[in-house]
Write a structure and sequence with these properties.
Order of helices and strands: HEEEE
Number of helices: 1
Distance between the termini: 24 Å
Number of strands: 4
Helix content: under 10%
Shape: elongated
Strand content: over 45%
CATH architecture: Single Sheet
Strand order of the largest sheet: 2-1-4-3
CATH class: Mainly Beta
Largest sheet: 4 strands, antiparallel
């Protein structure tokens, strides 16, 4: 049986605005096997931008 850390790994979301700002979150590998893209606030750019999952 898979442990919790394998099923919901910790991932890093990096800003696509090029500011270098990151968020850290968890994701479900079963529901989202592809790279995650979320629209979140970037305090350096001071606007909402897309944050892409880093591996």
């Amino acid at each position: 049986m898979a442990s919790r850390t394998e099923l919901r790994p910790v991932i890093k979301l990096r800003s696509t605005a090029g500011t270098g700002h990151t968020y850290v979150t968890r994701k479900s590998r079963r529901n989202n096997p592809d790279r995650l893209v979320l629209r979140k606030f970037d305090p350096v750019a001071r606007r909402h931008v897309a944050f892409r999952e880093e591996r």
